[in-house]
């Protein structure tokens, strides 16, 4: 019998009340079932019309897929351009090697550890400024006051855009990723695309020190980067670095609000914040990514057909007991915090040094300037469990400054 029938099951975290408390723990229940199953009941923009997609639940199997782009392609697997009615790939994420390798080299200078260090002064100033805006109030809704504006402003910095543009991007980001209908998501994709097209045209006329001007000046074998690849690159920078950082921060700051002992550990020794960042990223791996099978194959006993869509919830790899002892426990001194939070293989997150820097600095500035924070009203916390797992809101309180 077809494996898609024998291994079929409905899985929607959005209907699961346990997921609103912790999508990671709720999803980890899947580890009681098969390592690969066929998810039915939800339609994705990238769905190939097969009535569902495969879901891979174990770290080892996800890793095997991510390391093998020849059998598991990421070409158009995320699907933002399809939402905008186009077919350009996100660059480099939706390109397979060897073209992928070419574009990784193009963006590499902007994503080195040295570049992240260079930006860290401005990132710290930004974090401090945001915190100063609400510190005295003794209360804040974390997601809108910090989690979202912080990475968006870092993105604006790289793009050479004014901070005043932030609300536009905030709105588009929310609608693109979590718009209730495909129409809303499509309209956001079109809005972002036309904004980026205008911006590219402006930078062509008047280049600056920003990443778009750099891309426009870049020559591949003497030729400029083609327009569709340029769009894919710019869209990638928007889509890659905003919601991922915001969502990770949301779960991290909620965990700290629930665990004063963890806050104390960081307050007592700021030096453990880099290790804490890695452990938090392991425990709260927010990205769901996708691949297409490039050929018919039997993968760990399951018949996959060419064109099948495969979902990799990286948060499931993080909570896999076969990979990590006590996977739900936050342990800053855990021997191996190696995870798939930033993926692995050719598509390993290009922005990971920047992302780690943003998270580390956010933790340092909060720990230094905000006294012990708690959740004010747990009923106000809502989670989103679409492509990136996230918190919609996180109301925090702390003793106000006298
Ligand atoms: C905590 C924050 C972040 C997380 C968890 C994260 C996660 C990921 C993951 C899982 C992938 C690969 C997906 C796949 O293999 O299909 C990826 C790719 C990528 N990310 Fe990030 N990311 C974060 C922040 C950033 C930032 C700040 C940037 C910078 C703008 C960025 C830029 C990219 C790029 C350019 C790629 C494509 C790499 C390639 O295809 O070669 N990311 N990210």
Describe this protein's structure.
This is Cytochrome P450. The protein is α+β, with helices and mostly antiparallel strands and about 400 residues long. The protein has a single domain, classed as Cytochrome p450, CATH 1.10.630. The protein contains 18 helices and 15 strands. It has helices spanning about 5, 15-20, 25-30, 60-65, 80-85, 100-105, 115-135, 140-145, 150-160, 165-180, 180-205, 210-215, 225-240, 245-260, 260-270, 275-285, 315-320, 350-370; strands at about 10, 35-40, 50-55, 70-75, 140, 220, 225, 290-295, 295-300, 300-305, 310-315, 375, 380-385, 390-395, 395. The strands form 5 sheets. A 6-stranded mixed β-sheet has the order 1-2-3-11-8-4. The protein has a 3-stranded antiparallel β-sheet with strand order 5-15-12. α7 runs parallel beside α18, α10 (about 165-180) runs antiparallel to α11 and α16 packs across α18 (about 350-370). The structure holds protoporphyrin IX containing FE (HEM). Protoporphyrin IX containing FE (HEM) binds near residues 92, 236, 244, 314 and 349.
């Amino acid at each position: 019998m077809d494996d898609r029938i024998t291994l079929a099951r409905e899985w929607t975290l959005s209907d699961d009340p346990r997921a609103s408390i912790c999508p990671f723990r709720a999803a980890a229940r899947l580890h009681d079932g098969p390592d690969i199953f066929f998810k039915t009941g939800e339609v994705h923009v990238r769905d190939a019309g097969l009535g569902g997609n495969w879901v891979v639940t174990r770290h080892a199997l996800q890793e095997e897929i991510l390391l093998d782009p020849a059998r598991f392609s990421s070409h158009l697997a995320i699907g933002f351009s399809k939402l905008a009615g186009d077919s350009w790939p996100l660059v480099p994420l939706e390109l397979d090697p060897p073209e992928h390798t070419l574009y990784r080299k193009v963006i590499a200078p902007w994503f080195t550890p040295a570049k992240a260090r260079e930006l860290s002064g401005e990132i710290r100033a930004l974090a401090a400024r945001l915190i100063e805006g609400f510190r005295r109030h003794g209360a804040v809704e974390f997601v809108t006051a910090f989690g979202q504006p912080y990475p968006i402003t870092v993105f604006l910095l790289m793009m050479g855009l004014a901070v005043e543009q932030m609300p536009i991007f905030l709105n588009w980001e929310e609608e693109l990723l979590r718009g209730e209908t495909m129409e809303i998501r499509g309209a956001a994709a079109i809005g972002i695309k036309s904004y980026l097209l205008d911006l590219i045209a402006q930078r062509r006329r008047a280049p600056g020190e920003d990443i778009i001007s750099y891309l426009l000046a870049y020559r591949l074998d003497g030729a400029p980067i083609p327009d569709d690849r340029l769009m894919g690159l710019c869209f990638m920078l928007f889509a890659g670095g905003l919601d991922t950082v915001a969502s990770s921060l949301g779960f991290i700051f909620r965990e700290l609000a629930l665990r004063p002992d963890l806050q104390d550990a960081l307050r007592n020794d700021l030096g453990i914040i880099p290790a804490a960042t890695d452990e938090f990223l392991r425990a709260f791996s927010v990205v769901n990514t996708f691949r297409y099978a490039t050929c018919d194959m039997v993968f760990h006993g399951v018949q996959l057909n060419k064109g099948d869509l495969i979902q990799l919830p990286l948060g499931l790899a993080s909570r896999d007991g076969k990979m990590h002892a006590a996977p739900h426990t936050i342990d800053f001194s855990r021997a191996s915090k190696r995870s798939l939070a930033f993926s692995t293989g050719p598509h390993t997150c290009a922005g990971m040094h920047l992302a780690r820097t943003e998270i580390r600095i956010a933790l340092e500035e909060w720990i230094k300037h905000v006294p012990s924070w708690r959740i004010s009203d747990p009923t106000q916390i809502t989670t989103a469990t679409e492509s990136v797992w996230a918190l919609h809101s996180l109301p925090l309180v702390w003793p106000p400054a006298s």
